[in-house]
C-alpha cells in the first residue's frame, strides 16, 4: 500500500480521507466530528439536520401549517436550526483537528436560504461546503461571502466545465476541490444523464482524467479531486495515489462510515448492512427528484416497482387501438384502453388493486384502496422539501407548482428518509446505499458483527483495507 500524503483541504493539511455527507441526519455532528478528529475531513449533512432540546433529545420535525407554503417555511426553519446545531457538535467533537464540511443538495428546499442561515449562524465552525444534485452555480458566491471553501459534486467533466465557465471562475480562490461522484457506484442520488446508460457502467479513471485535464486548462492543476463512489479498500485504488495524470486525489467514503459506533443510524440498519448480497443493491428511477438513485432492495422498493408494473396507457377519447372503455374513479369516468390492457386492468382489480390513479404520462397505475389513501395523504401533507417534486407537484417558486400532475408512481422522500433514520423500519422505508454495501458481509474487519469506531475505521483505511 502506497503511503497517503496529506493534502491541503479547506486551508489545512489533512489526511486525504473524507467522510461522505449523507442526507436527513445520517451523517451528523457526532460522526463528522469524530472523523475530523482523526485528521481527515468530516462531513455532516445540512439536509434537514436534527435539532435537540437543552437536555439533548431530538426535536421531532412536526408540521402544523395548514398550507404547503406554511409547512415549507417550518421545514426551512428546522433545517437552519439543525444545521447550526450539528456544526457546533462537529466542532466540539473534532478537538480542533481535521476539517469540518457541510453537505447540501442544490435541489433541496430553499437551498440558498438554508446555506445563508447555517453559515451565518455557525461562522468559523464550517470549513467547506459540498454541494450536488443539480447545477449549483451560486454555491461559489455564497461560500465566498462567508470565507468558506466550496466543493461542487459532479459526475462528468462536462458538468464542471459548465459550472466553471458560468460562475466558478469568478470565485477561484474559494474552490477547495471538486468531488467526482461516480454515477454508477455512489449511493443515494446519482448523476446519470440522458446520454448515459444506467445499465452500462463506465470506469471512473478516464472520466476523472478528463475532469483533471479540464481543471489543468483552468489553472487548477493542484486543486484536489475527491473520488467518491465505489471506494472500499484503498489498495484497490493504489494506481490513483501519487498518479501525476490525476494530480492530487482524496478519497471519499459514504457507505463504510455507516457502520461505525458514532454513526447515528439504528442498530437494525447496521445489522441489515451486514447481511446484504450484491443483488440487494438496486439502481432505480423512482425518486421524486427525477434522478436515479442507489438503494437497498426491500419491501419499499419492491412495492414501487410492482406499482409501476401495474400500469397501462389510456386515452380520453377512442383512438387507434385504445377503444376498450374502462371506468375510473368514484364518478366512473370513462377512459379508453387497448383490449389487452383492459384484460390486465380487470385482473388487477380482481386481485384487490382496485384503485386506478392517473400519472402525468397519461397512464393509469393500479393500487389497493389503502395504498391509494396513503399516496393521497402524503401528497396532501407535502411540506415542500425539494425545489421541485414530481410526487406532489410542489415547486418552491411561484406559482408553487411544477405545472404537471402529481406522480403516484413516486413517494414522499422526506417522510421515508425521516422514518428510516429515526426508527427501526429498515424494510418498509427507503434505505440508500452505495453499490459496495454488500461488501460488509465479506470484509473480515466486520467479522462476527463487529462495529468499529470512526478512529478504528480511519486507521484501517490507511493500511489499504
Query: Briefly, what CATH class of the largest domain?
Result: Alpha Beta
User: What average pLDDT do the residues reach?
Assistant: 94
Helix count, DSSP H or I runs of 4 or more residues: 12
- How widely separated are the two ends? 9 Å
Helix- and strand-based class? Answer: alpha/beta
Number of strands: 18
CATH homologous superfamily classification of the largest domain: Aldolase class I
Helical percent range?
25-40%
> Can you tell me the CATH architecture of the largest domain?
Alpha-Beta Barrel
Q: What sequence of helices (H) and strands (E) makes up the elements?
A: EEEHEHEHEHEHEEHEEHEEHEEEHEEHHH
Structure description:
By secondary structure, the chain is of the alpha/beta class. The chain has 2 domains: about 5-265 and about 435-460, Alpha-Beta Barrel (TIM Barrel); about 300-420, no CATH class. The radius of gyration is 23 Å and the shape is globular. The strands form 5 sheets. It has an 8-stranded parallel beta sheet. It is built from 12 helices and 18 strands. The chain starts with 6 loop residues before the first strand and ends with a helix. Helix 5 (about 155-165) runs parallel beside helix 6.
